[in-house]
Write a structure and sequence with these properties.
It is a single chain. α6 crosses α9. This protein is α/β, with parallel strands linked by helices. It is globular. Strands 1, 2, 3, 4, 5, 6, 7, 8, 9, 10 and 11 form an eleven-stranded mixed sheet that branches. The chain contains ten helices and eleven strands.
Length: about 260
């Protein structure tokens, strides 16, 4: 019997009708900031996970980078995002059989069952969670053939998680980290706070980001930074806006950053 994870936030965070959803994603991709082609292969992206009217423009800048990979390949997406809906100690490897979105079904990698046996699988950690779900339509529009290895992260040590995940990274696996940045500061305070992420993440400055960075998905980002350091990847700043720039007032804003890592 198949175990499908159905959409929890369609119609709230993004359009629930397939044609409107595809049009929304395509518009955000078209408007995303174009960066120079990386000297080495794309290995990872960091993208925000708010409602598309808020963070879609910055997510578009992150997912545009997938134009740099070979889309004729079948890709595995190692997808990491924070738990918002339930307290979670450690992580939950979402070993469902597939995920459903308005754009169709996405197969979950067989590797998820192996990893879930090691790290655990708590279905309730993701059934109502948005952090992973909002990334899926961008992947569906950008990649003709892929599967996912989704992980919801609670309180977990990033360096240890990096060691566990590194064997799953190969030339047909892309790491995708889901996070927003600071929450509910004034516009100017958010710019000041998020400047830490915009400098530390691409420079692989783990110590500064761990000490003073502000992000709901900080464990996933730090995990990617540890992997990047060990593998000698290069970090790239792609885009930054906050909800005061996109679709909200400037009194209480949420920050959104897009970053990438490339390397051998």
């Amino acid at each position: 019997m198949s175990y499908t994870r159905y959409p929890a936030v369609a119609g709230m965070f993004y359009p629930e009708e397939a044609q409107a959803l595809r049009a929304s994603v395509e518009q955000h991709l078209a408007n995303g900031k174009v960066t120079a082609r990386f000297d080495q292969p794309l290995r990872a992206i960091v993208a925000p996970h708010a409602g598309y009217i808020y963070s879609g423009p910055v997510a578009g800048s992150a997912y545009r980078q997938l134009d740099q990979i070979d889309k004729s390949k079948h890709w595995r997406i190692l997808l990491l995002g924070p738990a918002h809906r339930m307290p979670l100690r450690g992580v939950s490897v979402c070993a469902f059989d597939d995920y459903q979105t308005p754009l169709g079904r996405i197969k979950v990698s067989e590797a998820s069952k192996e990893l879930a046996a090691q790290l655990g699988f708590i279905p309730e950690a993701d059934l109502q969670e948005h952090a992973l779900e909002v990334q899926l339509p961008f992947l569906q529009v950008q990649l003709p053939s892929f599967e996912i290895l989704p992980i919801v992260i609670g309180a977990a040590p990033p360096e240890q998680l990096a060691e566990i995940l590194m064997p799953y990274l190969d030339d047909q696996t892309l790491l995708v980290i889901s996070t927003d940045l600071s929450h509910f500061f004034s516009y100017d305070k958010a710019l000041q706070t998020d400047a830490t992420a915009n400098a530390a993440i691409p420079n692989l400055d783990i110590e500064t980001f761990q000490a003073t960075g502000d992000a709901c998905g900080i464990v996933g980002v730090l995990t990617a930074m540890h992997i990047a350091r060990q593998k000698g990847w290069q970090g790239h700043f792609l885009d930054y806006q906050n909800s005061g720039d996109t679709a909200g007032d400037r009194e209480r804003v949420v920050g959104y950053g897009a970053y990438a890592f490339s390397g051998q």
